[in-house]
Design a protein that fits this description.
alpha/beta; Rossmann fold; six-stranded mixed β-sheet; 7 helices; binds adenosine-5'-diphosphate; binds magnesium ion
Length: about 250
């Protein structure tokens, strides 16, 4: 188990407006962290810090291992909103291949090896049959699987997903978590989600983010703990585990 990212006493936000105050978090290569917290609490901002998209006002973010020499293609990212134009006449495979572009230029030439890697990834995510489909014909869940494929086609060390299941059906959600469970054998995962009930069986630990960050070293969390973490979120309780929000994970 090796450390890949270290966030130390970071203050970060936008236009000198501090959103996250004094947050610290270590990310290890086998982590599966569920990030929860109220809307506007700073979950996406935390991801921006990890991704290096915003620079902290104070504190430090350090990268280790493969990430030390550039985060390009070493962190896979599935953003909360994608700006893919579904009317754009591009196939599933081309979208996945775009995850293997190392320099500028969209739809540049790809090597045979890249194409094999794309096929392999589509197979792994279970959408090999969609390879030649134009993206305009996909359902919401299928599109998310395509974007997930693009995020992991470069074999990143860390996969970051920001509310991947907000606009998709329950069936997709179940499939997604099974896929993530498999991917976690090869990479660290951070997932932001509103669905506190379901993530529980898959994540290993929980980060509660609401302007500050409280790291909870278990996937079982009680209402009292959430309250003490200043994390007012809607709870979905499971009957089988009274007074806990989350079920035991299967690892
Ligand atoms: N690009 C931005 N510029 C200015 N303010 C932003 C930007 N993105 C987010 N914010 C503000 O930062 C706060 C936290 O947002 P965000 O990190 O998106 O929260 P969450 O993902 O938990 O809903 C909100 O008040 C939001 O309005
Ligand atoms: Mg967000």
């Amino acid at each position: 188990m090796g450390k890949i990212v270290e966030i130390q006493s970071v203050f970060a936000g936008y236009n000198s407006n501090i959103i996250l105050s004094d947050i610290s978090l270590d990310i290890f290569d086998d982590d599966f962290i569920g990030v929860i917290g109220p809307n506007g609490g700073g979950k996406t901002t935390l991801l921006n810090v990890v991704l290096g998209l915003i620079k902290p006002y104070k504190g430090s973010v350090n990268f280790f291992d493969d990430l030390k020499f550039g985060r390009n293609n070493k962190i896979g990212y599935l953003p909360q909103q994608n700006n893919i134009d579904r009317k754009f006449p591009i196939t599933v495979k081309d979208v996945v291949l775009s995850g293997l572009i190392y320099g500028p230029g969209f739809l540049s030439r790809h090597s045979k090896q890249d194409k094999l890697k794309a096929d392999e990834t589509l197979l792994k995510i279970g959408i090999a049959d969609l390879s030649k489909y134009p993206i305009g014909e996909l359902s919401g869940g299928q599109m998310q699987k395509v974007l997930l494929s693009r995020a992991i086609v470069s074999s990143p060390r860390l996969l970051i997903l920001d509310e991947p299941n907000t606009f998709v059906d329950n069936q997709f959600e179940g499939e997604l978590y099974e896929i993530l469970n498999e991917l976690n054998k090869e990479m660290a995962i951070i997932i932001v989600t509103h669905d506190v009930g379901t993530i529980s069986s898959y994540v290993k630990t929980i980060a509660c983010v609401n302007r500050t960050l409280h790291y909870h070293k278990s996937n079982i969390i009680t209402e009292e703990q959430l309250e003490s973490y200043n994390c007012p979120i809607k709870l979905i309780t499971h009957g089988e585990v009274p007074h806990t929000v989350l079920k035991k994970h299967s690892h």
